[in-house]
Amino acid sequence: MIPVVSIVGKSSAGKTTLIEKIIPELVRRGYRVGTIKHDVHGFEIDHEGKDSWRHKHAGARSVVLSSPWKVALVEDVERDHEIAELRDRYLRDVDIILSEGYKRNPHPKIEVHRAALKEELLCGRADNLLAVATDEPLGVEVPSFGLDDASGIVDLIEKLFLLRDDGSG
């Protein structure tokens, strides 16, 4: 099963920025990375007037856009899906999935925290908190990393989820 690590935090804490630092470090180490971004407000990748938009508005439940370089799916759903459902249905050929925006999920989490936001952490050990990326000392019971320490964060992710002990050592 593909492991999932959720990057969580308050709005404007820097979740996307941290993910943008973690992904290239994982890729540099030879891993294939998938991401899932949750948006409670909804989103549109189709734009009015485009053929795919026209297909959806004509009544198609699902539309696949395909080119030699990428594929996209626009699909109507009846409910918000859990990360595991999305992973199992849509993500293949990756070694790890980083999710963003799922504050309340059962997967391991790294919380992004900024002193300027003057807010408490969203998660604790009971919420499956693995680590915190922060710009201030917090005195938490999980490892803390600087906001720019992608290498340290990936070391932790690699140790916990990606390196397999093959028994030869």
What does this structure look like?
It is a single chain. This protein is an alpha/beta fold and 169 residues long. It has two domains: 120 residues, 3-Layer(aba) Sandwich (Rossmann fold), CATH 3.40.50; 36 residues, no CATH class. Helix content is 25%, strand content 24%. It has four helices and eight strands. Strands 2-5-1-6-7-8 form a six-stranded parallel sheet, sandwiched between helices. Strands 3-4 form a two-stranded antiparallel sheet. Strand 3 and strand 4 form a beta hairpin. The longest helix has 14 residues. It starts with a strand and ends in a 7-residue tail after the last helix.
What's the arrangement of secondary structure elements?
Elements: E1 4-9, H1 15-28, E2 33-37, H2 51-57, E3 62-66, E4 71-75, H3 83-90, E5 96-100, E6 109-113, E7 129-134, E8 144-146, H4 150-162
Parallel strand pairs: 1-5, 1-6, 2-5, 6-7, 7-8
Antiparallel strand pairs: 3-4
Helix pairs in contact: 1-4
